[in-house]
């Protein structure tokens, strides 16, 4: 065997080992705790002390946000990607404090003012301000360049670990509102049916269209309600489930293999998003590193026993679609409605309940966030308003003490 060939084998083995090592490193040993931090709440001079404070509590990772109110009062989360110099400085400051850094880059209803041509069309004719993120046109024109920008600008930064999707589907509470019926959606649906059935004759047979058979797949429109046809509705959901997989695979390809992707969604969106958007979480998780249901703040008004039961129920649903190594969980640990920190004993029980269900990757919201309460122009108020002190850990010594103790206990188990 030639020396060059042997060298090639050695190189391949080395690279394979490196890939395996990186994959193994991604499987964290013990507990891993995350928190969130909005970098434009206060002056940059606060960053070093804040990140040291986050590390001192026991957090391993921080998700950075740069949130501004866009035109019309819509939150715009794209600033964390657009404002490259500021984000790089924040990543460096967090890294200097010993933290791994994620960037919060996605929330469908909080991406600023979305162009009309990229919005979904509901079955009621509305075009809400959000991207139709199964649109291949939107993916090509916005999503891929957006992600490639993240990879190009922040991938080389020490400390940069990956990205986070928040409220990743954010569907409507109104079950009668279904997405999306743009001409592009309809064309893609017809193509899906043709690929699935092979011939229009086969389709007509399955749909029992003997009296008035379709002549081509181009004639077929997606159903606007399951009442129209159970069979058609199933195909519509299967089509959008496949688009879920494609969207996730494209996301992974564009952001790169080295970055982690954490996919978080409100617990009450999960079933609704499948019914109204056709999201197939299990297919999306195939391309993502972590999936974390997010306990909605409303549930913190529950009695303690009910809250803990609810957490277990949500995790049981998560386990149905997510393999054990990808389990994540996200929760508020402060009283959003009373605007006061959660009692230490309840924090302990919440975290221990999550860990007791076999989840070792946990996000606790939040170290420092904007004051989002309505005041001033638009829904988001004005830029550089003070942080929401009542639910920001930074301003609640009792919460800092509780979290420090609870995180230490979790690691000691």
Give your account of this protein's structure.
With 413 residues, this protein is α/β, with parallel strands linked by helices. The protein is built from 13 helices and twelve strands. The chain has an eight-stranded parallel β-barrel. Strand 8, helix 11 and strand 9 form a beta-alpha-beta unit. Helix 2 packs across helix 4.
Task: Give the helices and strands, then pairings.
Blueprint: H1 3-26, E1 32-38, H2 47-57, E2 61-65, E3 68-69, E4 75-76, H3 79-82, H4 84-96, E5 100-106, H5 136-154, E6 160-165, H6 183-197, H7 200-207, H8 230-255, E7 260-266, H9 270-277, H10 281-285, E8 290-295, H11 304-321, E9 329-332, E10 334-335, E11 340-341, H12 344-356, E12 361-365, H13 397-412
Parallel strand pairs: 1-2, 1-12, 2-5, 5-6, 6-7, 7-8, 8-9, 9-12
Antiparallel strand pairs: 3-4, 10-11
């Amino acid at each position: 065997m030639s020396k060059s060939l042997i060298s090639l084998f050695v190189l391949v083995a080395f690279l394979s080992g490196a890939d395996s090592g990186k994959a193994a490193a991604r499987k964290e040993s013990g507990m891993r705790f995350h928190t969130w931090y909005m970098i434009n709440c206060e002056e940059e001079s606060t960053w070093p002390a804040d990140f040291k404070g986050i590390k001192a509590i026991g957090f391993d990772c921080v998700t950075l946000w740069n949130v501004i109110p866009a035109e019309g009062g819509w939150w715009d989360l794209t600033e964390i990607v657009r404002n490259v110099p500021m984000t790089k400085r924040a990543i460096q400051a967090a890294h200097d404090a010993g933290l791994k850094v994620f960037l919060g880059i996605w929330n469908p209803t909080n991406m600023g003012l979305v162009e009309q041509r990229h919005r979904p069309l509901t079955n009621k004719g509305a075009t809400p301000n959000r991207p139709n993120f199964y649109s291949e046109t939107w993916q090509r024109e916005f999503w891929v360049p957006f992600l490639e920008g993240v990879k190009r600008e922040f991938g080389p930064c020490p400390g940069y670990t990956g990205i986070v999707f928040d409220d990743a589907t954010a569907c409507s509470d109104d079950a009668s509102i279904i997405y999306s019926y743009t001409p592009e959606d309809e064309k893609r649906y017809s193509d899906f049916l043709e690929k699935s059935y092979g011939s229009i004759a086969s389709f007509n047979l399955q749909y029992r269209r003997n009296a008035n058979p379709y002549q081509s797949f181009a004639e077929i429109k997606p159903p606007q309600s399951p009442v129209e046809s159970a069979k058609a509705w199933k195909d519509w959901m299967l089509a959008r489930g496949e688009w879920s997989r494609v969207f996730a695979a494209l996301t992974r390809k564009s952001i790169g293999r080295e970055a982690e992707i954490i996919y978080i969604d409100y617990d009450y969106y999960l079933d609704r998003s499948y019914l109204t958007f056709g999201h197939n979480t299990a297919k999306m998780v195939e391309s993502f590193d972590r999936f974390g249901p997010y306990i909605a703040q409303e549930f913190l008004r529950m009695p303690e026993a009910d809250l803990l039961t609810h957490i277990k129920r949500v995790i049981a649903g998560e386990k149905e679609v997510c393999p054990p190594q990808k389990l994540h969980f996200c929760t508020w640990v402060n009283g959003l409605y009373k605007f006061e920190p959660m009692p230490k004993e309840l924090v302990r029980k919440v975290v221990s309940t999550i860990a007791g269900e076999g989840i070792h990757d946990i996000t606790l919201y939040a170290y420092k966030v904007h004051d989002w309460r309505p005041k001033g122009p638009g829904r988001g108020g004005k830029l550089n308003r003070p942080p929401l002190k009542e639910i920001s850990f930074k301003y609640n010594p009792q919460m800092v003490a509780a979290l420090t103790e609870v995180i230490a206990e979790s690691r000691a188990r």
